[in-house]
Amino acid sequence: MALRLSKEILARNCVIKRCSLGFYLSSVIQRATLISNQDTELVVSGRSIYSSVSSISYEQHRNSSTQNFCTAVHPEKLCWEGSSRAAMLKRLEVALKEHQVNEVWESFIDFKRLHGFPEGFLIHKLITELCYSSDAYWLQKACDLVLVNLRERSDLLQSDMLTKLSLSLARSQMPKPAMMILRLMLEKRNLPPMNVLCLVVLHLVKTEIGTHLASNFLIQICDHFQSLRAKKSDHAKLLQPDTMIFNLVLDACVRFKLALKGQQIMELMSATGVAADAHSIVIIARIHELNGQREEIKNYKCYIDQVSAPFVQQYRQFYDSLLSLHFKFDDVVAASELILQMCDDRKSLPIQRDKKNSQRSYLVPIGSHNLESGLNMQIVPELLQKDSVLKLEGWLETAHDILDDMEAAETPMGYSTFMSLLTAYYKGKLVPEAKALLKQMRKAGLLVSLSDEMVASTCLSVVDTSACCTSASSSTRKSDQANALVQESRDEEETPSRVSDLVNALVQETRDEKEEISSRVYQFNSSINFFCKAKMIDDALKTYKRMQELKIYPTELTFTYMIKAYSSLGMFRNITFLWGDMKRNMENGNLVVSRDLYEYLLLDFLRGGYFERVMEVISYMKKHGMFADKWMYRSEFEKLHKNLYRNLKASEARTDAQRKRLEFVQAFRKYVGID
């Protein structure tokens, strides 16, 4: 009897050990699966949202997340107290309080597997804790957690928490998940305050992909705002973008040479009634320069000529852009007149006007004055946003924050990085900030033997040297050549004829630099642009054909004007003909198409229902390694063709044409992640 009882006890212990081991291995496998899932599909609000985990090694995170687990048989490790709800909640709360991110995540996963989501305030604390991490892996986890909660318990997600997450993601240069969060907030009409949103955009536009996303997001905001304004909704005011966010995006478009996108954003600025300040006007001039639009930039000149003395230096780049366009159009007379005017302006600066009139606004047409239904840009030439200091001090504050984060993570930055920031502080005359950083450097064992005065003197000498180098390197700019011309004529008291000769020499010198594109192309494009804006599409087409007859190759701008005109009239079939011409020119090496024009084509073909052309454009973008904003394409599809062929199978297609179209529709659905 005792022997049989002993066998039963041993057998029961064996069963317990196997069950415990099975549960234990199951836990490890679930954790490994969660961590190793590189492309998790999450269903949010009836749609599929894809989130890709950062490219950190799987083994590294598997080890860090399963370090408390082993495959040895220890039945006592799974005790009733450890698996109870109260004990697991306590473990999670303690980990959150002690800011132990790995322990926090493990505790959350254990609790979620057995009991579902914890209370809302703990979810809020968990996401907030992950937001404070500088590790892209944990920020991606926070983003994934938000998406899961949108499906299961969307009431848990608060606006301030989502704002904090989007800012953390943007600051860590994770533009795709950051934009995903912002777009979810926009769908709920619960955007952050515009000043906070500007801070997020400030980080996004540091990269080209971030600029693509930020510009498309600004377009979405404008569309929502215009829709609500048309309905006279009170909520429209909360969505109206301000001058600062336009300036950030437009400046990034210029920096990354996104001329077509910059043009679109600029026109939206006018359509939404946002006033352009002095900084905006200079950026707009650069965009017109990139697009070869001389008439447009000339519309601003009469107002810029009247600005008071403190703003003359601000508009130096404006005159540079106008002068460059005169050269592109091979207009020697206009270029000479502008240089002589700039000479005269230096001799007699405008008189300071009354402060009451200093911030007067004007309406400037975007395009020709002869257009009756064209857009008008409201400008305030002598206004600078007070938040413009963000361009200097905001970046420095961000840089200092990053240094603090690196130091807290026990991976401090090197001497050169500290000195760069310290020099920038002295250059910006931010003495208290410089002293605080210097104190921090000395704690790290840097500059211990030098006094504050010696450090300041060294940094300021670097600033002076840099300024001299910058001045020398920028002397090749046309306006600097003009300044040298003015100085030379002033010192030697040259006669007007001598000045004129020097101006002509300058024009001749720069003429050869502008031969990449014939001046006739700019003239033809200007005419086509006018006809397209005036809805005179037949005249635009005649001009386009005339270019072909004269063997003048159309540029990207030529096709852009035509495509936008056809699109505004709903003539999507005609765009397919232009697409054929574009492909032929590309094959012959006579045309290079930017990502923005491909995106225009893709969206227009979507609106027209030409899915074979849609997939063709996508293949070209893939071939050239161009970024695709799939969220935007998916949204456009769902707005226009949500139920198209949803339940139709290939075997049920009535004709070959329908079967072929179904094939391309399904290919697009798969590409953007629908169904």
What does this structure look like?
The chain has 675 residues and is an all-alpha fold. It has 33 helices and four strands. Strand 1 and strand 2 form a beta hairpin. The longest helix has 35 residues, at 2-36. It is globular. The chain starts with a helix and ends with a helix.
Helix coverage percent: 55-70%
The total of helices stands at 33
Count of distinct strands:
4
Main sheet attributes: strand count, strand direction, barrel closure = 2 strands, antiparallel
Strand order of the largest sheet: 1-2
Q: Strand content of the residues, in percent?
A: under 5%
Query: C-alpha Rg, in Å?
Result: 31 Å
Summing up helix and strand content along with how strands pair, one would put the structural category as: mainly alpha
Q: What integer is the average pLDDT? A: 78
Q: Low-confidence parts, pLDDT < 50 over ≥5 residues?
A: 5-82, 387-393, 465-500, 509-515
Overall outline? globular
